[in-house]
Amino acid sequence: MGTIQTFIAEKAGWFYILSVNVIFGFCLYLLFSRYSTIRLGGQTARPEFTYGSWLAMLFSAGMGIGLLFYSVAEPVSHYASPPFGKSHTIESAQLAMRLTMLHWGVHCWSIYALVGLALAFFSFNRGLPLTLRSAFYPLLGNRIYGPIGNVVDILGAVATLFGLATSLGLGVRQINAGLSHLFPIPETIGFQVVLITIITSFATISVVLGLDKGIRRLSQLNMVLALLLLVLLCFMGPTFFLLDAFIQNIGQYIEYLPALSTWTETYRHTHWQNQWTLFYWGWWLSWSPFVGMFIARISKGRTIREFLLGVIVVPTMLTILWLTVFGDTALYVELFGQGGIAQAASQNLAIALFALLEQFPWSFFSSILGIIVVVVFFVSSSDSASLVVDIITAGGNTDPPVKQRIFWASMEGVVAAVLLVGGGLQALQTASLSSGLPFGLIMLVMGWSLFKGLREEYKKTEGGETGKPAQGENG
Fold it and tell me: What pTM was computed for the model?
């Protein structure tokens, strides 16, 4: 795993950096283009979900476990071991937040948005199956139903499996770390496999219940619990420092985004970027078939502008808020308090969140709440991804057989467990990096295919008058 990760990072790092920037630029173009008024599903289509439910499912599927795992661990890691400059300084703290926001910001959500928009458009506006091969119809025509289409769908299913396995592996490590922090419970691979088995069974029940009864309600519960944890830490922590930091983080993110997003570590050989930025880009690319298809499934009736704002801008702002509360609180403790969080994270990234919560009152209650939030995110990520792989492997059928749902929900737990036993965190990172590489190339071609499809749609609608509000739309 280590050899594969190093080879891909050194030989294809430039491709990852270039790809995510091209994808972000394309989404930005569509947001302000004449195609932004096209409505997914046609002029009379109506949204299936309210804005609140829609955004809750977007955020739960797109971030989930990973954001909980890294919102404390990543900033303090960069603060203690920055890619350049001195460590444990105010400058390294500011750099830490800029790098963390780079990894979790607009590039990540643009990757999801491109896949989601392409699938939603070709499925709802062109009547094609809701599966990855449909996004290439303008380029391949009916050949999407042949071997080429099969390869695209297989790569998408495999990328989803490994992308999800990374999140589930991180999540179960964090649950185990939290339980070991509070109770005399061993932090071992064997116990983590047991946790995967138990929680995957809950995910299987949820995915059998379906999108509305299971996944939607679980996503809403996610948001309530996560918001409770966010508010709790915000008021227990340095509240006014966080208000200042939120404003400054937005400004610094915008200011440094062009330089950081195109940085390729050309003149350095620290391999820092291999472990962080390239891992994230590979993770988001491998995660994109799942999140993109899930977003497409719940976004019928939205205009393209509404879709892009909802999928890129709103989640990015929520992510920066979350990173500010958790990341900057940890940095505040390191800079002005007793410290110790960075040292704990250097020994075990999974313990960072609980090391932070221990610094404040009601730490036992907040740590229990943190574990519950991770568990619920674990279940919602697993059931959402299971539904997506079901749809892909059922040829675009949005209501696949229950037996198939159970199989894929179980298989995702098996893959996560095997990777944990086989190589721990490095195996999880390599799985994402390697599965994201071929799908990055597919996404670039997908963007060109979507552009051709939108251009044809705009011509057919005589100027794109498809953005009029549908009757009965409640938003």
Answer: 0.87
